[in-house]
Amino acid sequence: MRGAEPAARLARGVAGGEGHRPAGAGGYTVDLAWSDGKLQEAVLRATQPAHCEVRVAGAQALRVNGGAVEVEVEEPGVISFHVQAGGEYRLA
What's the CATH architecture for 6-91? Predict the structure, then answer.
């Protein structure tokens, strides 16, 4: 998801809903839920170890399999973190 903006692409112009993006070359599947035009939750599932960058608006909490994940702020609105194969990463 390097530099991706999945919520913006799926939710643009739609007040609420859910979406699923199957695994691509980056080795992630992504499930999204939004309400009132704002992201409520994104769940990334990694199929291989990698370094992931996600574009986010505002403060976000990231958890993996229930535990906190250390993130780096690459630039305003962009966080990055390492993922492991089989990990489920929740951004809410």
Answer: Sandwich (2.60)
